[in-house]
Amino acid sequence: MKRCIVTACALALTAGAALAQDYPTKPIRLLVGYPPGGPTDLSARLAAQHLSEALGQQIVVDNRPGAGGTVSMTSLTQSAPDGYTLALGSNGEMAISPNLRPNLKYDPLEDVAFISRIGASQLVLIVHPSVPAKSVKDLIALAKASPGKIDFASSGVGSTAHLSSELLKHMAQIDIVHVPYKGAGPAMTELMGGQVQMLITGFSGAAPHVKAGKLRALGVTGARRMAAMPDLPTIGETVPGYEVTSWYGIVAPAATPKSIVARLHRELAAMARKPEVVQRLVALGIDAEGTSPEEFAAQTRSEIAKWAKVVKLAGVKLD
User: Fold this and answer.
1) N or C: which end of the chain has fewer CB within 10 A?
2) Are 62 and 31 in contact (CB under 8 A)?
3) Alpha-carbon distance 261 to 83, whole Å?
4) CATH 2.60.120.430 fits 122-237, yes or no
5) What is the per-residue pLDDT for 149?
6) What are the beta bridge partners of residue 120?
7) For residues 238 and 135, is the Cβ–Cβ distance under 8 A?
8) In the CATH scheme, what is the homologous superfamily, with its name and number, of domain 2-121+245-314?
9) 2-121+245-314 and 122-237 agree in CATH topology
10) This prediction's pTM
11) pLDDT category, 68, cuts 50, 70, 90?
12) Of 246, 245, 268, 247, residue with least CA distance to 86
């Protein structure tokens, strides 16, 4: 019996090694839950390019926007766990939606195989030039002097932009009013037109308008200042403990063979060390990462707990 057990284990290990060595033998589909052109999509395409070169197979980016990225993630979790369907997971569908959507068709901690986080980006707090605030401290003072008079835009109820502002509202103890829009584009348009006064949004969308003087940046949401805007303070320098990042990682369906997960992680970790990749990500306001599957899972678990508190404070739920 002992010989049988040893033989069975050896065969399993050999089969796993062979699977990883042969994989992939056909194109791989990479699902993205957002439209082309945004930081999530651009991160996915950068990963797809690298994996295609490293694995010798085409990586087809498949954009499936809808319901805050949950359409794409639902599709992933219903796919065969064979390594030929992957997804770009972000904090929206992996950490926020589980707290917002009681009818979600997947559990991000049970129904996916974590491979690697590839990057994290800060958001930027921007205001219309008519707002007489030159810093986060000024903005908070202005909001306290005129409760309910500052409107903040977002890309939709329950979005990272919305909940980031709700977190600031709570931590700074200010009364500001949420105005949701159907996407970051309309929210930015309304801010530039002066219909709203404030927006927390992605760096790549805000930077051109800030540089052109059409909008004013007051702070970034991360724990440290951004390499792309080193003179811009963090919000946490004024509101201690405030920290928000958008992050991006590659995941697969649960039960994907560990040998395939290990192969993909190895290639993504190598990507994160390439100077040219790091430079391209920095230009998008993204810090390169190459976390292990275990680190990625632990980070997601922590993020889910964090956003649960913010969602409760904001008092929002979605179908």
Assistant:
1) N
2) yes
3) 8
4) no
5) 96
6) 247, 287
7) yes
8) Bordetella uptake gene, domain 1 (3.40.190.150)
9) yes
10) 0.86
11) confident
12) 268
